[in-house]
Amino acid sequence: MSTFYYKAINKEGSPKEGVISAVNVDIAINSLQKRGFIISDIKSSEESSGLLNKNLTIFERVKLRDLVIMSRQMATLFEAQVSALRIFRLLASESENPKLARTLNSVAEALQGGSSISAGLSKYPDIFDPFFISMVKAGEESGRLDQTFAYLADYLDRTYEVTSKAKNALIYPSFIIFTFFVVMGLMLTLVIPKISVILVESGQEIPVYTRIVIGLSNFLVDYGLVFLVAIAIGIFLLIRFGSTKAGHVSIDRFKLSVPYVGSLFEKLYLARISDNLNTMLASGIPMVKSLELTQEVVSNEVFKAAIIQSIKDVKGGNSLSNSFSKHDVFPGIIIQLIKVGEETGNLGEILGTLAKFYRREVTNAVDTLVGMIEPIMIVALSVGIGFLLASVLIPIYNISSAF
To answer: Which domains does the chain have, with CATH numbers?
Structure first.
């Protein structure tokens, strides 16, 4: 049961404000209308809460997985011929994500006011990207919203699977590396300084590798704070540079040039491009519009520039394969297969096959990368810790032997 705050006009024409409890907003509205009220505004208690709750909503976000589930549910409900307004109200009441629930309720209100679904969704670009909106608009125009949301659910599910696998593969190495640097930092700033005093006072000759460790420890103790501030400033400047157009292009070019990792990114973008085009062409969206939407969601400036130029070529009468062939970012196998698809009239099917191929390549590349990272990381950590221990224990052993 939820609480709703309302403003209305009663039968006598006088303004009225109050609170009503109901399962959802539809039941609350029906109850008020039965009393003869003309509702001017109605909000749930969550929407009308204080400043603290408004500030907390900043941290709310809609995950890709939430959109997958929502699209799948919409496809099923549209196939069952449930009205759009009822679908959005129902999904809003069932959603476990507060931000998505509020958004779906707002879209339902827009639908009640005569708006289209795509227009209602377009008011929330932070949740629904241009690709999603265009797919829904194409579904409205063709009258196949059930198929459209099924396509969207499948596409988003595939995207989620690939991106989540790539992200999850980096969690373990990142945690281990972070822990290693924290432990080494604590050792060099808290433990080594105390041991170095003993070694210096002993009068024994200190090995070169031990002097290196002591020198590094002294540097961190004396200038550690300055060093951390310099790193923070460097990261800030890098982020600022990355937010500019030139910085974004430079970073995207660098990502593609890194050995092995660049190949992984390339396969990820090619899978995304192929999948986007296949999904939109299957929904009846024209080629030029499909390319325009793809360049908006490809997330890499190098590929984006190539697609923008390809759009101009396609508008000028060139085929897609011929347009792609002018850019080195598209491998020859993609160009040849697209050409075969254009000649046989099976371009959508060919693009679907390419998307599956590159998704599989991304999965294999991630698995291989993880398999390579783990032994390399273990060896590197072992060498680092072994060097630190040897630089401390060997001099201490020499001192104890002298007595």
So the answer is: 2-58 (3.10.20), 64-157 (1.20.81.30), 162-403 (1.20.81.30)
